[in-house]
Every structure is written in structure tokens, then in C-alpha cells.
Amino acid sequence: MSDCGCHMEAKNGAERKTLRILLVINGVMFFVGLVAGILAHSTALVADSLDMFADASVYTMSLYAVGKSAYHKNRAATLSGIFQMTLAAMVVIDVIRRFIGGSSPESEWMMIIALLSLIANSYSLYLLSKHRQGEVHMRASWIFTQNDVIASFSVIIAGLLVTLFNSRFPDLIVGFGIACLVVWGGIRIIQDARRDSMAQL
């Protein structure tokens, strides 16, 4: 096998290992965050957990694309972006539902679970830092994980504000903000994949 072939195989192996670890982390935190968000009546926590689920799907698609053609990598990135925006729409619906129907978010649970998510997302971002300048499927993972760190930190702030003002609105505002962040991330990676496709023509 040529040196180039060995290098590519090592690169693909490193990507697969990183993505598998990220998939496990996000899968676990999705279930933890979703259950906690439902029990704590927190839109922000539910939004953060759905963001984790969306990222798990991104890592799955990226894992599928490792070692495949540029077409498959661009397609995986584009589908990841579309899926992210779909889940963001679900979060907006939940925000509207809770705004109309009322909610009583439990700030302590919000902050505890969001802190766990922040630790998990920060570690994921560290693992991805070696691949952030890679091909489009890995850049997609980097972009979405950056958004995860911001989202988790925002939920902690929302929990503090819920306690400080004894109001549910910080929870709803942050939930909506996370949805907007996810949409923006989806748009960015779709544009990135499109630019990558055009460059290969």
C-alpha cells in the first residue's frame, strides 16, 4: 500500500473513532436531557436535548461518509443540516405551546443537567478540534458541536434567571434562542456543502 493510502486509512480510522465516541456521548445526553426537560417542565432543556439528538444524527451520517466519495460527504452534510432545522421547528412549536399553556420550569434541574451537557459538549469539541479543518462532513460536526456548547451554557444562564426573577420567560426565550442557533448552524453547513460541491465541478 502506498504512503498516501496508509495516510488516508489512518485519517479515516481517526475520524471513525472520534465520531463513535461523540455518538455515544450525545446519545446518552439526549436521553438524560429529554427526561430531565420533561420532568422539570423546561423548554430550554428539551431544546438542548433535541439538539443533542440532532447532533447524534449528524455524527451517524458523518460516520457513514468516512472513506466515501466527496459526493457522499456533501450529501451527508446537507442531510444533517436539513435534519437540524426540522428539529429546530419542533422546538419552536414546544415554545409556543408552553407560552400559551403555561409552564413552571425547575431551575435547579435545568442548571444541573445543563452543566453535565456543557461538560460533555466541551469534551466533544476538544475531540473534534483535530478534525475541524477536515472535509465537509467533519466540518459539519465541528459547527454543530460548537452550537451545543453555546446552547448548554445558555440553559445554565436561563436557570439562573428563572431563579432570580421567578419567571418562566427566560426558559422560553432560551429555548427559542437555541432553536434559532440550530437553524443558523443548519444553514451554514448546507452552504458549506454547496460551496464544496461547486469547487469540485
Which terms would index this structure?
201 residues, mainly alpha, Alpha-lytic protease prodomain-like, elongated
Describe this entry's structure for a reader.
This protein has helices at 3-39, 43-65, 70-101, 107-128, 136-165, 169-199. The longest helix is centred in the N-terminal third of the chain and has 37 residues, at 3-39. It has 201 residues and is an all-alpha fold. The model has no long low-confidence stretch (mean pLDDT 83). Helix 1 (3-39) runs antiparallel to helix 4 (107-128), helix 2 (43-65) packs antiparallel against helix 5 (136-165) and helix 3 runs parallel beside helix 5. The radius of gyration is 18 Å and the shape is elongated. The chain has a single domain (3-99, 107-199), classed as Alpha-lytic protease prodomain-like (Up-down Bundle). 87% of the residues lie in helices and 0% in strands.
